Amino acid sequence: MAIATAPARSFDEPVAEQISRLRALWAVIKRKPLGMISAALIIVLVFTAIFANLLAPYDPLAAQPEIRLAPPSWAHPFGTDDIGRDVLSRVIYGSRISLWVGLLAVGIGTCAGMVIGLVCGYWEGRLDLVLQRIMDAVMTIPGLILALAIVSVLKPSTTNAMLAIAMVIIPGNSRVVRGAVLSAKQNRFVEAAQAIGCKDHRIIASHILPNVTAPILILASIWLGNAILIEASLSFLGVGTQPPDPSWGLMLSSTGRAFMEQAPWLAVFPGAAISLSVFGFNLFGDTLRDAWDPKLRRTR
Fold first, then answer.
1. How many Cβ atoms from other residues are within 10 Å of residue 280's Cβ?
2. Which is it for the CA torsion 143, 284, 97, 92, positive or negative?
3. How much of the chain is helix, strand and coil, in % rounded to 5?
4. What are the residues whose beta carbons fall under 8 Å from the beta carbon of 49, sequence distance 6 or more?
5. Least reliable range by pLDDT among 8-12, 40-44, 243-247
6. Rounded-to-integer distance, Cα 41 and Cα 35, Å
7. What's this model's pTM, rounded to 2 decimal places?
8. What mean pLDDT is reported for the chain?
9. Least trusted range by pLDDT, from 52-61, 147-156, 162-171, 203-212
10. What are the residue boundaries of the structural domains of the chain, listed by start?
11. What is the CA angle 218-221-89, rounded to 5?
């Protein structure tokens, strides 16, 4: 008599699962107009940052004193600043700095937080206790104050601002990943893998990590908007990107604040760029959550 055996697990299942999640994400984006808007905003931001040298009509650092503080016109759609630099070109090039700082800061902060969360959640014990108390202590400090303190100790620059933002991201991400790992450890397939003698690194890579990918990606997408906002805030306070590099926060701080009444376009257009970027990434993070959280999918 033939004995029925359970079908072997295909190595293509993780890939198929990711494809199904992407399809679910696209379905949510099409079903929810705000999701489509957020995707469009992000695409425009990335396209602008990549092709800034082709899209910008002028050199963002070239000064033309004879047309200083010129209002928006066909020649200069966003007007010019106090030394005659084209505001549109500076806003376009500023997207490079914001996106670059945001991506690197979120990448570093997410990876470091993920490692700490995996270590703490899987092995627990004394190491978990020490690391989590350190994370708790860091989280008691407001994010902008912590980033401002780190940049002030190091040196005001774009690179140090990026590192400071990454330090702000690490504690919260580590706690979320730790919670997801603790939940994933309760699954029977993890217990079965431990029972047959699988090594810890194999269990983490094959069973734990795939089950915490969704919250990690959702956190990263939301933090991208926050990272852009923090970078703009640091530049506004004079400890982020330094002149003459074009930065949205720096444009608000220098010319935007000094000529607010005389030339309001100097603050309006960089501020609008910051707002739309943060709005797009935060809304996209909500869309990711709706697409990849099975509980939310069942309630819709």
1. 23
2. negative
3. 75, 0, 25
4. 95, 96, 98, 99, 100
5. 8-12
6. 10
7. 0.80
8. 83
9. 203-212
10. 41-56+77-298
11. 170
| Domain at 41-56+77-298: CATH code | 1.10.3720.10
| Residues paired with residue 86 on neighbouring β-strands, in sequence order | 80
CA angle 154, 160, 164 (to 5 degrees): 95
Those residues whose C-beta lies under 8 Å from the C-beta of residue 169, and which sit 6 or more positions away, are 105, 106, 108, 109, 110, 113, 223, 227
* pLDDT 10s digits, 236-283: 888 888 888 888 988 888 777 778 888 888 889 999 999 999 988 888
**Pairwise CA distance, residues 229 & 226, whole Å:** 5
What tokens appear for 73 in the block? 């016109």
- DSSP string over 195-262: HTT--HHHHIIIIIHHHHHHHHHHHHHHHHHHHHHHHHHHHHTTSSSPTTS--HHHHIIIIIHHTTTT
- The backbone region for 187, taken as left when phi is positive above 0, alpha when psi lies in -120 to 50, beta otherwise, is beta
Q: Is the pLDDT of residue 109 over 60?
A: yes
Report the alpha-carbon angle 296-230-101, nearest 5. Answer: 90
Residue with tokens 């009509």: 57
